[in-house]
Structures are given as structure tokens and as C-alpha cells.
Model the fold of this input.
Amino acid sequence: MTEQAAQTTGQEYHVVRASALRDWVASVFVRLGVSEEDAGITAEVLVSADLRGVESHGVARLGPRYTSKIQQGLILPRVEPRVVRETPATALVDGGNGLGQPVGRWAMELAIRKARETGQGSVAVHNSNHFGIAGYYAMMALEHDMIGVCYTNSTPLVVPTYGRTAMTGTNPIAVAIPAGEERPWVLDMATSVVPLGKLEVYARKGQPIPIGWAVDSSGHPTESAQAVIESLRTRAGGGILPLGGTAEFGGYKGYDLSAMVDLYSGVLSGGRWGPHVGENVDGRAAPAGVCHFFSAMRVDGFRPAEEFKRDVDEYIRAFRNAPRAEGEDRIWVAGEKEWELQERYERDGVPLYYKVVESLRRVGRDVGPPFDL
Amino acid sequence: MTEQAAQTTGQEYHVVRASALRDWVASVFVRLGVSEEDAGITAEVLVSADLRGVESHGVARLGPRYTSKIQQGLILPRVEPRVVRETPATALVDGGNGLGQPVGRWAMELAIRKARETGQGSVAVHNSNHFGIAGYYAMMALEHDMIGVCYTNSTPLVVPTYGRTAMTGTNPIAVAIPAGEERPWVLDMATSVVPLGKLEVYARKGQPIPIGWAVDSSGHPTESAQAVIESLRTRAGGGILPLGGTAEFGGYKGYDLSAMVDLYSGVLSGGRWGPHVGENVDGRAAPAGVCHFFSAMRVDGFRPAEEFKRDVDEYIRAFRNAPRAEGEDRIWVAGEKEWELQERYERDGVPLYYKVVESLRRVGRDVGPPFDL
Done:
């Protein structure tokens, strides 16, 4: 624990420098046979999630989602992504069952290069793995005055409207739009009502979840987070509802958005999709087969970038300064919360929940070097 | 009334042939000075909404949204869309304040031509008007084995999370994906929980709306559809909530999606956006300044189109045949409901609600030729 820990919730959080955390995470991957470069990229993407307050996609997953999978041979530590098919504006890439982060970064760089040449570039990737936050890749377009888009499919957790088994993942949509003086407009959202992590918090506390978040194994809305988690674990059915929740509130729209992400990622790439994604095939451990989609588009294909960015500034300010509901003190703009956290955590350090620290210590003991930040 | 009317709900509906309806609507536009070609396109897009069961965007709007606006000089009957800026893959188009349908069709054709050359094409349009259903334009890509995308902004009706005034329209997202033997996968969704028309139905019946659909002029969730409609009309605040509803159910995601559509349409085109869209500027009638975004992408830039379409078939069937919730008899795939209605209405005729028939008769008396289908 450091003095800074007192800034957050008592002793529950341990605060570490982002740069030190990145270096340690990278060194873990290097020990597992990952190249220095790929280890650095993977560490950067993971820590960027913690910096942006998306703890569920950050270093908390280092052991369960990454190092243990490399150790089990389910993720290959050293691969070269390979272009399978290519046109001036598009490409299909085989991720070679490597870490999702270096493959993702490589594919988004390819999309950006293509956009520089033709105005727009899109790249679909199959045979990859979890790649952290989708927003990271979309944001890579920003410094080029491009709009960045990133989708990925993921392990099934979400039940389609009127269904009773999980058929898609929380399949995120990320869109990054450059601004001028304001921070960029960045959308990075799961297409489910809530992430699984939120159900886990309610289950731990034994609190009922709102009707509209999840369904039980019969497909009916439930208040029991524990029942949903248990039936997902045993593959008995049930799961999280898509954005919108029940049909009455437009849940079929979230279901369609989730399928759209899957069609662009899994089907357009000729990879795995829907219930076939994930490290479990017919009860046996297997590569996850995650698929991604990346796209970049030059703003100056439509109008001068400076004019566009000035108007995005105006757009952001119009919403921030719009009349607020009684009792509310702020209207947020997409990505604003995350930028504010990132600035604070880069300055003051990243707070790690004590359970996350414990899991990093286990990774340190298991793989080395020890976690002693 | 025809014999076929008995097929639907007693005498409330009048059934007409789609082709006869299209011809009559086109003839109305020709009387108002619209070219034969543009009149035909506008009629086709309007009737396609009725065929697909999206009555709110069909001929019911002919008088209030189109003919009266042309008569008031707010929409120009005869314009040529103009390319303002162009690269091989992108273009900015000035809609010239003409009818949205011919401009939209022209712009999507341009996007498709660009996609044929470069792999992807995108076109942003400013200075346009309501263009009917966004799905129509996205679906234009299908016969070219392309994925089509269409966004449009619209008159403010939707309140951002924690706000209390409408800042965006119901800003739809349309995505059309070609299939093989199955009907194409077509998403065409408003980014609001419900359309305004749904609130109007509840208001008429005096029924409470579910908490999470709309907020009153203080920004608090309300059960009174009448209060929302009234406060929208008098610009006192209030409005529909974005997809997701309240923040607890992820309403901020719908708000962000609605803003994304606006940024691609209004801001990327250098046109009007957010609260500035619509036929009312500082209390005076004015052109609506609606903006659109169109995009097409060749499937074979990633993999052979036939393989892709075969897998889309498999995708559609997997969801259609997935385990259903107890008591439910069907899981729908995006666009499926609309295709089934379209096939039925093309065969049996389009049912027009009696109030719609009355409004068409008024248009016939006012503009001619008489509505006597």
C-alpha cells in the first residue's frame, strides 16, 4: 500500500504508476516467450483499460485470460499475423492464434495505411484472441485525423430476444472521432445491458438485479445474479440481455447490434461466430477463435479536418452545456469520463483493487518476475 | 373499402395495391413540379416503408412531411444534388434542399460506384430533408454483394442521459448484409427506445407508458405520454429516452449511438446537427437541413461473396433455430418480420389505416389527382 491509496477507498486499493505496471506486465509476457515488441503492446493495451477505468478489461485479466492460456498452449506466444486477401481498401488477416493485442494493433495500422491511400481502410481478422478494450484500436485513428471503428466478437454471454441461451458475446462497438481543443469523442460500449462483472458484484453482495438485465435458464427475466452466473457456468442456459433489455424496451435492437458486430467480425472474416466463439468446444479446451473488425476513414475526404474538428468541439460543448435534469449536475459526452480518469491516473497512479493485486502476485510467483510495485 | 379489408381489422383498414399506390403518390409529386424520375423514386421509398410495416415512415407522411412542405417552399421540388468534395472512396454532397429520397438514392448509388472501384465508398450529405426509411438505402448495396450502411439525423425528440431537453432525433442506424438462400439480414432501428408514434398511441388511449420510455420537462421519467407530447410541442423540454432508457439500463449507450449517427451525418457533412435540425429555427419555419451518411463495402474485399453469403445463411438459421424462452414461439432475425410483411403486402395489397386514407384524400383534393384507389 502507498500513501496515495488513502485517496481512494481506504485499504482496498493499491496505487501503482502506470509506466511501472506496463513494464512489469511486459516482462511477464517476455518470460512466456512473447517478443519484446508484442509484450510491450499487450501491456500497453491492458494498462490503458485500467487507466480509463475499465478494470474488467485491464490487468485483472492477466492471469485468467492471458498467461494461463499461453501456458496451456491455447494462445501462441509468438506469431506473425498474415494477410490472406487484400484490396487497396480492405484486407483479411489471419491472427495465427496469437495474443489479440499485437494482432489488433497490426491490423488497425494496416487499416489506417489503407485509409491514407484510398480514403478508407477496413480489415477483418480471424483466429485471434481477446484483445482488451476495443476503444484502444479505434483511438489509433485519431492522430491521423481519421474516424476509427472497431468491433470484436467474444465468448457467448448474451441471450437474443425471446431466446434462452447465450448466442453472442457482449460484442463491443467502438467509434473514435477526432476533436480540436476538446478531447476526442470516443464511444466504447458493450452491446449488452451490463457487463458480466456487474452481475458478479450483485451476486457477491447478494443483491437482486433489476428486471431487464438478465434471464434465467428458462429465458424469463430474473432478479438473481447468482442464478444467471451459475447457469452460464454449467451451460444450462440463461445469460445477460442485450442493450435495451426486454422487448418492451427495445432489447431486440441490442440483440441486432450484437449480431451486426458478429457478422462484421466473425462472418466477414470467415472465422468463428456466435455460440462457436470461446475456449471451450464440445467441453474441451480449445483456442478461442475470436474475430475482430477494424476500420479507419479520413475526415478530409469530406471536409478539411480543421473545420471538422472545430465543429466536433462545438458539438461536444453543446451537449455538455445542455439543460440538465432536475437534481443532475452533469451531462457526459462519450469518452469524457474515461479521459478524466486517464488524466488523473496517469498523474496520481492507477488504483488496483486488492483482489487484483493478489492475482498479479500469483502471476508473478508463477511466471515471474515478482509483482512488487 | 375492398373485400380484402376484411382480412385485417374490420373496417379500420383499406387495402390497396402497392403498384397503384406508388403510381398515385408519384403523380402527386409530379403535380407539385417534381420530375417524373424523382417523383417515382420518392413514391417508391415511401411505399416501401408501408410494405415493410413501418407505417410511420410511409404514405401517412405524404401530406404533413412532403407535399405541404413543397407548397410552403420549405422543400424545393426540382434540384440536382451537387458533389462538393470528392476522393476515390468518399464524397460530400449538397442535397440542395430537395426531397430526401432522390438525393438519398443518388448519394447511395455514388457510394456503391466508389465501392466498386476502391472496395469501399462513403458519402455524406448536407442540406437535405426527410428521406423515409434508412433501410431502403442500406439495402441498395445488397444486389452488388456489398454491405450497406445508412445513417440520418432528424428533428430533435430524444433527451440525452441526465438531460431534460431533446438534443437529437431518433437518428436511425441501418445496416444491410447480403445472404444466399435466406433473405438478407437487415437492421433498421431508431436509436431511441420507442418512436414518437408509439407515445401517440398511448396518449390517444390514455394509457400510462412504462417508466424508461420518456422524461417530462424536468428530465424525470414519466408515465404520461400526453405530457411528453405536449411539452415537446411547446418546446418546454422533455422527450423520448435513448435506446436503453434510464442510465440503470444503459441509456447512455443509446444516447451515444444517437450522437454517433449525428456526427457522421450532420458534422461530417458540415451541415446541421443536434438541436439545430428541423423546420423551425428560432420559431420561424425554415428548411429542415437534414443530413445523411451512406456507405457501401464489397464483401469480396475480404472473402468470396458466395462463401460469405452461405455463412450468413448459416448464421441466420442458427439464431432462428436457437432454444426459445418458455412460452415464446419464435426468435426473429433482423429484417425478417419486415420481409414477411413485404411479401404478404405485395401479394395481398397494403393495408392503410382509415386515418391515413383520409389524409391521402385531403392530399388528393388539395394537390390532385384524387385518391380513389
User: Anything to note?
Assistant: Confidence is low (pLDDT under 50) at residues 1-7 of chain B. The two ends of chain B are 9 Å apart (CA to CA). Residues 3-74+349-367 of chain B form a domain with the Hypothetical Oxidoreductase Yiak; Chain: A, domain 1 fold (CATH 1.10.1530.10). Chain B touches chain A through 84 residues (CB under 8 Å).
